[in-house]
């Protein structure tokens, strides 16, 4: 353990740690060194995505989901409707403001403040003066891709 030396000054007591000097260890070269197995990290396997050559309508999407999940088409339509309701509910003005399907996409809303009009400004290109227009407050919706969606696009 290191020794702790304390010194008293007018109003404070401070402690300093004096590090012990340890003698340098001698390295001994072994004649028969055993080989260690090296464990290398491998990259995550690429997504196994099958390409789909056509676009989906609401009906064909429900049919495809029903086939892949081995359920009825009516059940798949109900799940699509429930997902739509969840997304619209979170984007609602009294909602959470964001919706995430992990790894696939994220829907985020951003509120913008109103801008007052009637301010005189000059156009930097022509040098003419103009009066700005008022802009009301609004909400912008942004959909961002997730990591799995980005990887699928690169494959």
Quick recap:
The protein is an alpha+beta fold and 155 residues long.
Write down the overall mean pLDDT: 82
Integer-rounded radius of gyration = 33 Å
Number of strands: 7
Helix content: 25-40%
Largest sheet: 3 strands, antiparallel
Sequence of strands across the biggest β-sheet: 3-4-7
Q: Name the shape in a single word.
A: flat
Oligomer: single chain
SSE order: EEHHEEEEEH
* Poorly predicted spans: none
Residue fraction in strands: 15-25%
Number of helices: 3
Structural class: alpha+beta
Terminal CA distance reads: 56 Å
Question: What does this protein look like?
Answer:
The structure is a single chain. The chain has helices at residues 58-69, 73-91, 147-154, and strands at residues 3-8, 13-18, 98-101, 105-112, 120-122, 129-131, 138-145. It is an alpha+beta fold and 155 residues long. It has a domain at 49-96. The chain has a three-stranded antiparallel beta sheet. It has a two-stranded antiparallel ribbon with strand order 1-2. A hairpin with a 4-residue loop joins strand 1 (3-8) and strand 2.
Keywords:
155 residues, alpha+beta, three-stranded antiparallel β-sheet, two-stranded antiparallel ribbon, 3 helices
Can you lay out the helices and strands and say which pair or pack?
Layout: E1 3-8, E2 13-18, H1 58-69, H2 73-91, E3 98-101, E4 105-112, E5 120-122, E6 129-131, E7 138-145, H3 147-154
Antiparallel strand pairs: 1-2, 3-4, 4-7, 5-6
Helix pairs in contact: 1-2
